[in-house]
Amino acid sequence: MATIKDIAEKAKVSPATVSRVLNYDKNLSVNEATRQKIFQIAEELHYQKVKKNLNHKAKSIAVIFWSDNSQEIKDLYYYSIRKGIEVEAATLNYQVKVYYANDSLDDLNESVGIIIIGHNQYSKPYLNHVYSFKRPIVFLDADTLAENYPCVVSDFHTSVKEVIKHFLKQGQKNIGMLAGDLNDNFDKNNLIDFRFQDYKEYMSKLGLYDPDKIIVGKFTPESGYAAMQKYLATGRPLPQALVIANDAMAIGALKALREAKINVPNDISLISFNDTTTAEFANPSLSSVHVDTHEMGRLGMNMLNNLINASFKDIYKITLKTKLILRESSQN
């Protein structure tokens, strides 16, 4: 079994730093890249914290994720959200059970509350089945306020505009998007990716929207690579700049562009979303919109706890500010 010392040696930091990061010590001053690197190494080494004797009265909450755990590992965005939930849940004396895609929900009634990551990725029958258990529910990474469910989201509406404005400032008006959709029979003008909806609305307002510049993947590196290869095979000119829905797809797109001898950012600029560890260490390093995913998970768990204990019954939404981090993949 991996130890804190093993993680520290691989991350080239002290065991004390690893311990404090994994326990989310709020008084620790450590940069985001180091923190994400420690989480990634801990996952690679299958590190498990030594569990303290749990109070037998600890209640269980459910966390539902739309994909399998391999997606979570490939995209640390979701892993960080889950860790934020779990750490705060432990503080509040809850146990956490994660339900991935295709897991049976038969024992969901054993949980006193439910956190659902995402929304549009689930079918209506699936969500209706979850609702039928009549448990307090909080959504993360999806705006469900209009549907009368509390939620925690990041301010992607502002950040999408900020990315487009940055490209325009560099004189790049021909801006495409590598968006995400899980459906093989997707409608290119009505994708589930909420970043795409903001992109389409703003680009249309500017008179710059071109559906031929929309590329679609499935949020994974492999799909980003395949989607970019498919676009290049059409022979159509590349846009000057590309908004990419997440870092995972951006990594795949970078590989396809590199193989095609297309220079980033001289031939095409890329800016992605989430600013996971892979963004900083990509080649070239990725410009990306930073999202505090751990805080999203922590706040979501607190929100659910309020509902469970009826300490705050009103339905509300928390919106976290994002930050555009500029690196080598875009003209700056």
Structure commentary:
The protein is an alpha/beta fold and 332 residues long. Among the domains are: 4-44, no CATH class; 156-291, Response regulator (Rossmann fold, 3-Layer(aba) Sandwich), CATH 3.40.50. The chain has 12 helices and 12 strands. It has helices at 4-11, 15-22, 32-44, 69-74, 76-91, 124-131, 156-169, 194-205, 221-233, 247-259, 277-281, 293-308; strands spanning 59-65, 94-99, 113-117, 137-140, 151-154, 175-180, 214-217, 241-244, 269-274, 287-290, 317-320, 323-325.
Walk across the major sheet and give the strand order: 2-1-3-4-5-11
Number of helices: 12
CATH class identity of one domain? Alpha Beta
In the CATH hierarchy, the third-tier topology of one domain is known as Rossmann fold
CATH superfamily of one domain: Response regulator
Unreliable parts: 51-56
Distance between the termini: 45 Å
Shape: globular
Strand content: 15-25%
Report on the biggest sheet.
6 strands, parallel
Query: How many β-strands, per DSSP?
Result: 12
Salient structural properties:
six-stranded mixed β-sheet; Rossmann fold; globular; LacI/GalR-like_sensor; transcription cis-regulatory region binding; alpha/beta; 332 residues; single chain; six-stranded parallel β-sheet
